[in-house]
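Onboarding guide, step 5: your first structure request.
Type a short instruction followed by the sequence, for example:

Predict the 3D structure of this protein.
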Amino acid sequence: MHPATGEIIDHVNGRADIQHKMLRAINNPDARLSEDRLRLLRAVRFAARFAQFNVASGTLQLMCDMVQAGEVQHLVAERVWQEIAKGLMEHKPSRMLEILRDCGVHKMRLMGNPRRMPSMTGYGLEITGYLAKE
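The system replies with structure tokens like these:
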């Protein structure tokens, strides 16, 4: 917002994304997600919170590519669990789990020792320290 005029300044077309109910990584999505890989989990958490919004196809493809490249396996287990736990408390947690499954996260070990994590099952995923192996 311009301090003198009160005019909303929208350099990344966020207002249009809101009108079109679209979630997307701004500017250079590859750079945004690569500089902080945890943003991938935040994006799916927001998809669970704002269930009426769609994840932009380019952003979703980039998220899936990052998963397939194994980039999410380097995240700190506690941070992964915090984001997933927050997502499970959102309006439509199944949405978060579906996107993670569709990107292939369920095939990867993300959170260390499965005996240390709470057990929750559903939506074809088992959250016990893994987002289940098939």
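Each response can be followed by summary notes, for example: Residues 14-108 form a domain with the Hydrophobic Seed Protein fold (CATH 1.10.110.30).
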